[in-house]
Design brief:
By secondary structure, this protein is α+β, with helices and mostly antiparallel strands. The protein is 26% helix and 22% strand. The protein has a five-stranded antiparallel β-sheet, with no helix packed on it. It starts with a strand and ends in a 9-residue tail after the last strand.
Length: 179
């Protein structure tokens, strides 16, 4: 399956973006096509591609699976142009996802998907998720390492020291009133 984690779409801005860092009041992203870095405020509507899905007659299908099926069909090459006519786009999409809901999935959604695939393909961001498999072919879940208790340092023990009166004395905290 294609890995789309960290790739987002921003409402009102064309193209796809990659999350670089978190800022004080938003995130810093980089455009996949032009490599420009932009600050996006926290009030801006952002959608991660990993969270988007398309309606089918059954359950909703994640976009990662649809992009993977396009990738497999085209063997990593380009897909149909997003500027093609409506009949060609719907015919191609029906080959990719035959059980899509024809009432809820519009041609504009298909065009956006093909545009995103083209951006991901031309920028080299179509990377397959690596899954570890055992000898019997089953997927192995990676186990977390056993957590060792944190070592306490002198700084940690000095922060909460009881005085002779029994009250906690905290270092580095400024008191502004009577407790």
């Amino acid at each position: 399956m294609i890995d789309l984690t960290g790739i987002i779409s921003i409402t009102g801005q064309p193209g796809l973006f990659k999350i670089l860092a978190q800022a004080k009041n938003g995130i810093i992203v980089e455009g996949l096509a032009d490599k420009k870095r932009v600050h996006i405020y926290s009030s801006t509507k952002v959608s991660t591609l990993a969270d988007i899905g398309m309606y089918t007659t059954g359950d909703e299908k994640p976009i990662e699976e649809i992009v993977t099926s396009i990738f497999d069909k085209e063997k990593g090459g380009p897909c149909v142009s997003a500027k093609a006519d409506d009949k060609e786009i719907t015919a191609y999409f029906a080959q990719i996802l035959p059980d899509y809901d024809k009432e809820k999935v519009y041609v504009s959604n298909m065009r956006k998907l093909f545009n995103w695939y083209t951006i991901l393909q031309t920028t080299g961001n179509l990377k397959v998720k690596e899954e570890k498999t055992g000898e019997d072919g089953k997927v192995i879940k990676t186990e977390d390492k056993a957590k060792t208790p944190a070592k306490t340092s002198l700084k940690d023990t000095a922060k909460n020291v009881k005085t002779l009166a029994g009250n906690k004395k905290t270092s580095g905290v400024r008191k502004t009133g009577v407790a």
